[in-house]
Specification:
This protein is of the alpha/beta class. Helix content is 38%, strand content 28%. The radius of gyration is 19 Å and the shape is globular. Bound molecules: adenosine-5'-diphosphate (ADP) and magnesium ion. The site of adenosine-5'-diphosphate (ADP) has 12 residues, from strand 2 and helix 1.
């Protein structure tokens, strides 16, 4: 199968005054359709920067080296840096979407959630409002939001944290992207709600055939849903493997440390 995205020796430095922060020191990996790849590492290791690089939303003072090759829909074997701004805008939201820790970051308190999903759809597709309504309901169904017609008319403040995250996911999948980047999507949620959102990711993987990069610092989440694991440490990928390889036979000292700080990971379940 062909990959959706391939990072080749990706380096990101931030140039601030006379300082250079090496955020990514040359990382390489691929994400395929219909798989959940966990990018796991402690705070500051470069996880969010990786997502921002794939979406090309890093600040101007970031220096990016290496390649990000896309194989998504009409962007076949395309190097991200060779694309026009218009193409990059088309990719964001239409072909690659991002889900953040805080759904409030993407939800506007002044509009109903239905209006916001419809807006996302109409921003990328030339269809009637009636058709957009149908597609919005469909997105809410895909995000497993109960009673979508009722919820459609509600405002973000009328919803729990977990439901708001589902709405953010409905917005992210409304245009059927092939790749989802989920940056600590359950960190702000309690354990039960977090487990439900992880289950939703599994169903999106199967039903929509998306590839998902699931960023987390939590190995419990990794064990729960990931097909493959990338362990990132100080801007470098220090270990990769499937979930069982990593948990059964961690090789890098950092992975061993991560695992030993959660000794009861399998017995908890
Ligand atoms: N916009 C930015 N400007 C300067 N430094 C940044 C910026 N974003 C991230 N960094 C630095 O890059 C490194 C990686 O950050 P990040 O990817 O956000 O880590 P995390 O793994 O917690 O998501 C950190 O040292 C962080 O301070
Ligand atoms: Mg982060």
């Amino acid at each position: 199968m062909e990959y959706l995205v391939k990072l080749k020796n990706l380096k990101v430095d931030f140039l601030i005054e006379d300082q250079i922060i090496e955020a990514l020191k040359g990382i390489s990996f691929e994400i395929f359709p219909e798989e959940i790849v966990a990018l796991v590492g402690e705070s500051g290791s470069g996880k969010s920067v990786t997502c921002q690089a794939i979406l090309d939303i890093l600040p101007k003072y970031a220096r990016v080296e290496g390649d990000i090759i896309l194989n998504i829909d009409k962007y076949k074997n395309k190097n991200l840096k060779s694309l026009t701004d218009e193409q990059k805008r088309d990719i964001r939201g239409n072909h690659i979407s991002m889900i953040f820790q805080e759904p409030s970051a993407v939800l506007n308190p002044l509009f109903t959630i239905g209006e916001q999903i419809v807006e996302t759809i109409l921003a990328h597709q030339s269809i009637s409002e009636g058709e957009a309504y149908k597609k919005a309901i469909e997105a809410m169904e895909n995000a497993k939001i109960p009673h979508p017609e009722i919820r459609f008319k509600q405002y973000p403040h009328e919803m729990s944290g977990g439901l708001k995250q589902r709405v953010a996911i409905a917005i992210a999948i409304a245009n059927y992207p092939k790749l989802l980047l989920a940056d600590e999507p359950t960190t702000a949620l309690d354990v039960t709600v977090s487990a439900q959102i992880l289950k939703l990711f599994k169903s999106l993987k199967q039903n929509l055939k998306v590839g998902i990069l699931l960023v987390t610092h939590d190995l419990g989440i990794v064990a729960e849903v990931a097909d493959r694991v990338l362990v990132i440490y100080k801007g470098e990928i220090v270990e990769t493997g499937d979930v069982f390889e990593i948990f059964e036979n961690p090789k890098h000292p950092y992975t061993k440390k991560l695992l030993s700080s959660r000794p009861s990971i399998f017995s908890e379940k």
